[in-house]
Structure formats: C-alpha cells, structure tokens
C-alpha cells in the first residue's frame, strides 16, 4: 500500500507545477485556532477519563468477586477449625460473632500461620484494592466532569470567534462515497501525539507532520488525487508553515478559480470525506466554499473569506485541511 501511495504521489505532484498557490488564502484567527485546540485537548481528556472509568469499574467488579470467593474460603476454614477444635486461633476468630462478620475484625497474627493464612491475606489485600479503586473512580468522575466543562467553554469560545467573523450555521458536505481511511496513530490514552514538521512534503519539497502525511496518503489512496500543495513559508502564517495543512485543488492540474460542475462535486466529496473521518485522521478544521467545519462547533459555519473577491481567499477553488 505504501508503494502504491508513493507512486500516486509521484504522479500527482509532477503535473500542474505552473499553477499558482493559493497565496491569498487567509487562515483562521488566533482566537478561533486556540479555541479549537482547547476543545480538542478537553475532548481527549474526557475520552481518556471515561476510558479509565470503564477500566476501573471492571476492576471493581473483579475485586468484589474475589472478595466474595475469599470470604467463603476463609469462613469455611474457620468453621471447620472451630468444629474440630484443632486450631485455637480459629476460636478467637469466631469470638467476634458469626464467621461472615468475623472476617472484618481479623487481627490475630497467629491466624496468618494457619492453613488459611494466605487466603486471609489475599482477602485483606483485595479489600484494600477495592477501597483504592473506588477512590480512583471518584477521581476519574471528577476529571471527566472538569474535562466536559472545559469542552463546553472551548466550544462557546469557538462559537463566539466565528460569530465575530459574521459566520452563522451553514449546510456543508458531511460525507462521501469514498472508502474509510486507516486511522492515524494515537497515544495509549486516545489523544494524538505532538508532531513536528519532520516528514518530506511530496507536494513542495518542504516538510509536513507525520499525521498530515498520513491524511494526504489516505486521501490519495481512496481516490482524491488531484493537484495538492501543503507546505508554505513562514511569512504566509497559519498552519502551512507548521506542516499541519494542505490545500487540495478542486480542479485537475492546479488551482484554476471558482469551482463549478464536476470540480465543485469533487471538492464537496473531499471536504465531506475529511469531515466524516475527522476523528480518525485527526482533522482540526476544514475550509471549503466560504464555509468552515471544526469539531468544537459540530457542524459547518459560514466563513466570509474575502467576500467573493478571490477564489483562493474564499476557498472556492480548493479544500483547506488542517490537522491537530
């Protein structure tokens, strides 16, 4: 698959080299960018906290089952010892009441030397584990509640930032017929790792992040193989100099102005594919046809661009994709 992708890249980026980059493209403002970052970070924290909650709940169930099993074993031994009169320490165990109640009060050291000593120690350890697990669960519930509050705050901040640009809700593409991509690698807690601009950009000779390279490769493999440019110099600002963004032309061979007909349909499908699989790929936001999609808002919003004066600035000739 990697060989096929490399071949596709070589073919794709050897054509249309005379096409102008979307140099007038305007990135999102810093307030919105930070709000999106905050939302994604809070979402990762929430997912991690909920996953840890599930793991701890499973541990609590197993520990309670161990406690029930060990309690039966210890009590059975204590009763047998008492009836046979063979182990005086068993009498001290039972002196506190019935066997089930006596387990919680076991402190006689000599009992640990009896045949059931290991069962008793296991029971004491299991009860200590249960107490620790219940405290850990409470901590994760609090962590999840805090992460959820942070998500809501970031979502509201993003909404305010978009509203300040004059962008209301809009109907944009949310899927395509293209196959699902291979998900991008994540940390063990479900978050995306930090990545630098460390991979050669096959579209410019600059650099992109491994996650951007993965998304670009996956897009090509499922059929979105038209002209694309990713890295741009630092003076352009935004995500391109960080290697975290690519511009996917709607037209074949280069950026050729306002997309219509088949080119518009291609751009719609591409934008919809990145929205549909944004979580799997690690998409931060998508801009297409004076609209922006990003996870904090949960849908498309109007994005004014340059008011129809430039296909590059209005993103009517290309789909802009930025990654976390």
Gap between N and C termini? 24 Å
Give average pLDDT, whole number: 80
Query: Main sheet: which strands, in order across?
Result: 3-4-8-5-6-7
- What is the number of beta strands? 8
Helical content class: 40-55%
The Cα radius of gyration reads 30 Å
Beta content: 5-15%
Class by helix and strand content? alpha+beta
Low-confidence stretches: 1-19, 105-113
Counted up, domains total 2
Global geometry: elongated
Count helical runs. 9
Strand and helix order: HHHHHEEHEEHHEEEHE
Coiled coil: 32-73, 120-154
Keywords: Coiled coil, Signal
Organism: Stackebrandtia albiflava
Signal peptide: 1-19
Question: What would your notes on this structure say?
Answer:
- The chain is α+β, with helices and mostly antiparallel strands and 324 residues long.
- It has 2 domains: 2-29 and 168-323, no CATH class; 47-150.
- It has helices spanning 2-12, 30-84, 88-94, 99-102, 117-164, 210-221, 261-276, 278-281, 311-314, and strands spanning 199-200, 207-208, 228-229, 245-249, 283-288, 291-294, 299-302, 318-323.
- α1 packs across α6 (210-221), α2 packs across α3 (88-94) and α2 runs antiparallel to α5 (117-164).
- The protein is elongated, with a radius of gyration of 30 Å.
- The two termini are 24 Å apart.
Explain the layout of strands and helices:
Blueprint: H1 2-12, H2 30-84, H3 88-94, H4 99-102, H5 117-164, E1 199-200, E2 207-208, H6 210-221, E3 228-229, E4 245-249, H7 261-276, H8 278-281, E5 283-288, E6 291-294, E7 299-302, H9 311-314, E8 318-323
Antiparallel strand pairs: 1-2, 3-4, 4-8, 5-6, 5-8, 6-7
Helix pairs in contact: 1-6, 2-3, 2-5
